[in-house]
Structures are given as C-alpha cells and as structure tokens.
Design goal:
This protein is of the alpha/beta class. Helices cover 29% and strands 25% of the residues. Helix 1 packs across helix 2 and helix 4 (114-130) packs across helix 5. The longest helix has 22 residues, at 22-43. It binds 5'-O-[hydroxy(phenylacetyl)phosphoryl]adenosine. Belongs to the phenylacetyl-CoA ligase family.
Length: 439
C-alpha cells in the first residue's frame, strides 16, 4: 500500500491553563500549595518530622512567599527512605515506578498514580506542541526506555499529543538510522549528544543527515548550549528545541521550549512552583533574573508529593514569552555538583562546549580529565578535530581553544586534539568529566 503524501491538519488546541495570565496562575498555585503541604504532612512521615522539627505547619502558608519557611527536600531524603518511604498512597494505587540509577549510592525510586501519569502525559504533550510537533506526525523516540523516565515519559507525551510514536529507545545506532530512513519520522526525541552520535554515524556511512524527513528535534536530559543547538540544526536541517525535567519532580516535561522563540523552557507553573535559591546560602531565595539553584515544588502529585526539591541545576527565572503566564528558565549552565573547581576557578563542561564550537576545525566531541599531580589540579581537554580539518590546522585550533578558555574561564589547561571518531560516543546522557583525582 502506498501512502498518500497529503497531510490532514488535525486539531491541536492548547490546554486552557497554557494561556492563563500570571495572576490566574499564581492564584491556582496558592490554592494547590496549601493542599499539597497538608497532603504531604498528613501522609508522609518524613515531611511531618521535618516540619515539626522546623516548627512550621502547613497552615503557616498564607501567601506564596511563605513557602520559603518550609525545609528543602534533597535526593538524600529519597535515598534514606528507599524504596517507597516517601510515597503518599498505598502501593495498590501506584500505577508505575521509575528509578534513577545515580552514580553514587542507592537508586532513587519515584512512583505515579494513574492521575499522575495522565498529568505527566498532558504536560509532556504541551512541551512537544510548543516545540512544533504536530498531531498526526511520526515521532521517533530515542530516549532510553525502562526505569529512566525519558523513554516512557516522552512516549506518553507523544501519544497524548496524537502522534504516531516509534518507540526505538536509546542505543543501536545503526538501527536508529535504518528506522529514520525507512519510517520517515517528522520529529526525533533524543538527548542532544545522542542526536549528535546519530548524525555523526550517518555521515560516516556516507549519508546526509540533512536529507532525512526530520523537521524537529526535542532534546533534553543533559545540559547543552546554543552552539550545540546550532550544530544539530545545521547537521540535520531541523529545528532543535529544549525539554527539561527530572524524575523526582515528574520526568521529562516539567518545562519545554517554543520553536518560535527558542528562548528557554517554559515551566508549567500550574503544576510546579519554581524558586531560585543561592546555591551557597540556601536561606536566600533570589529574585527573577538572578542566577542560582532551581528548586521545585510539585503542586498536583499524588503518589510522591515533592516540596522544595533541590535540583542542583543552575539557572534563573525569566518572564514568560510564548506562554506569558508561565515563567521560563534560562538554559542550565550546569549542576552545582558537576562544577569543576580548578585552582579556585569554577568551570562547567557547557562552557567548554560553547567555546570549542566557536573555533573552526573543532568538533563537539570532547572530554574533560582532571588530575592532581604534585597536589595541583590539572585540567586536560581532549577534543576531536573535524573531518575537514587537517592535523596542522588542528594544532592551531588547539592553541586557540587553550587561549579562549584562559580568557573566558580564567584557567589554563592542556589541550589534546585527537582524530575524528576516537572519543566515546553518547548513547544517552553523555559523561564528559573524568575526575581522576584521588578522593
Ligand atoms: O533526565 C528527564 C528527562 C528525560 C528530561 C528526557 C528531558 C528529556 P533524570 O534522569 O532524573 O531525568 O535527570 C534529571 O537531568 O536535574 C538536569 O541536571 C538534567 N537535565 C534534564 N533536562 C535537562 C535540560 C531526566 N533540558 C537531570 N538541560 C536534571 C539541562 C537537563 N539539563
């Protein structure tokens, strides 16, 4: 059977909450916050203990700013109560579990009631719609399926929007390429570094990623820069938009970016109340526009209420644009626990990505290695040259990179420009930092 090429424009209405004014959203937030605090206090012993110890009670919340009186929740709280100690509903009401493996310590387990799953799908769909994905499109989902929230979270979002989902999952790059060519998807959902891996593998096979059917990519789950957006957009000739989320707060879809404005993720504030705190002095809640650590309170979650969760993601809050009532978050510069402190200078992998991609001849494939010979921290940047850059030009590009890092970050480092294809490729969230210092 041959397919007709004419596409029917399917209805694609916004949720009414998407167009609410700031005042309307804040009044919803206040009502939901009151309910959430009381709900968590009544049902989760850890919240009750924390609030009793701090001398606060849910009824102390009279206005939104009173939220600052309540203690934070940390990943450690979920670990201490592993696996289900922070759940607020009996197990038979939990429709699904996810978990993050975490690099250290125990996994953190998160749970969802059916209503939580429905809300998650709805919010994820809002993100995809905002990114330009349309009902009726074919969507290739290359986020990993399984305990990671990326695969199933993005899957439900795409279904909710009314697309045809191709549940490819992460990895098996050759197969990804075959499916992209044979099924001709309109959009792809993948981490930015994995999309890069796919494009790179296509080029090595002599295929032109610009000739695929892909029009839109929705990328998230790891920090990426405007320079990387440009790289991916040129590589595939598509629009690449951001999507943000984290398991403890929900999963992908807490916030999403508009393909029209491409100016950062809008947080769905009818379901989440964000705050920015000073990452080094957590008693300070910062104003909009100021840089600090993102903290989220989920306003509607049943199975795992989460109040003032410290994300350790560094960003800032900005006024809404494409969805005026919902604030945006500035691009995440990094995680406070991913920050390399190099001889007193703070450095994030995203800064290296930004600088390197402005230097002709250097590719986005790089790793950072930190060592401590003679009790002095040393940073080495290992980066691949591009195919069209010969080794002489690569030497100069390496020197340029060292110079730019010195100027913009303030630290000196060793640069090794290596041949294309020699560094490990991403199949999901890419590990950039190799810290070889003895702990
Ligand atoms: O990564 C959820 C997700 C899946 C988001 C797919 C987007 C797309 P976790 O595994 O719990 O959940 O990791 C959450 O990933 O705290 C950030 O540090 C990072 N992160 C997620 N999205 C972005 C993004 C998923 N757009 C952690 N930009 C978060 C930068 C991101 N970092």
């Amino acid at each position: 059977m041959t397919q007709t090429s004419t596409r029917i424009e399917l209805p694609n209405p916004l949720d009414p909450e998407e167009t609410m004014s700031r005042d309307q959203i804040e009044s919803i937030q206040l009502a939901r916050l009151k309910e959430t605090l009381a709900y968590a206090y009544d049902r989760v012993p850890l919240y009750r203990e924390k609030y009793d110890t701090a001398g606060v009670h849910p009824t102390d919340l009279k206005e939104l700013s009173d939220l600052a009186k309540f203690p934070f929740t940390e990943k450690e709280d979920l670990r201490k109560t592993y696996p289900f100690g922070m759940f607020a509903v009996p197990q038979h009401e939990v429709a699904r579990l996810h978990a993050s493996s975490g690099t250290t310590g125990r996994a953190t387990v998160v749970g969802y009631t059916q209503k939580d799953l429905d809300d998650w799908a709805k919010l994820g769909a809002r993100c995809l719609r905002l990114a330009g994905v349309k009902p009726g499109w074919k969507v290739h989902n290359a986020y990993g399926y399984g305990l990671f929230t990326g695969g199933l979270g993005a899957h439900a979002a795409a279904e909710h929007l009314g697309t045809t989902v191709i549940p490819m999952s992460g990895g098996q790059t050759e197969k990804q390429i075959t499916l992209i060519q044979d099924f001709e998807p309109d959009a792809i959902l993948a981490t930015p570094t994995y999309l890069l891996t796919i494009g790179d593998a296509m080029q090595r096979q002599g295929l032109d990623p610009r000739k695929t059917s892909l029009k839109t990519a929705v990328c998230g789950a790891e920090p990426w820069t405007e320079e990387m957006r440009h790289e991916l957009e040129v590589m595939f000739d598509l629009d690449a938009c951001d999507i943000y989320g984290l398991s403890e707060v929900m999963g992908p879809g807490v916030a999403g970016e508009s393909h029209e404005t491409k100016d950062g993720n809008h947080i769905w504030e009818d379901h989440f109340r964000p705050e920015i705190i000073d990452a080094f002095d957590d008693t300070q809640v910062l104003g909009d526009g100021q840089h600090g650590e993102l903290v989220f309170t989920a306003l509607t979650k049943q199975a795992l209420p989460i109040i003032r969760y410290r994300t350790h993601d560094l960003s800032r809050l900005l006024p809404g644009t494409a969805r005026e009532g919902h604030r945006r978050m500035g691009r995440i510069t990094g995680r406070s626990d991913d920050m390399i402190i190099l001889r007193g200078v703070n450095l994030f992998p995203s800064q290296i990505e930004e600088i390197a991609l402005r230097i002709p001849g250097l590719s986005p494939h790089f790793q950072l290695e930190i060592t401590r010979p003679d009790r002095m921290d040393q940073l080495a940047v290992r980066i691949e040259r591009r195919e069209d850059c010969d080794s002489d030009r690569a030497i100069q590009a390496g020197k340029d990179l060292a110079k730019q890092i010195k100027i913009h970050v303030g630290s000196s480092c060793a640069i090794e420009v290596v041949v294309p294809g020699s560094l490990a490729r991403s199949s999901g969230k890419l590990r950039r930092i190799y810290d070889l210092r003895e702990k």
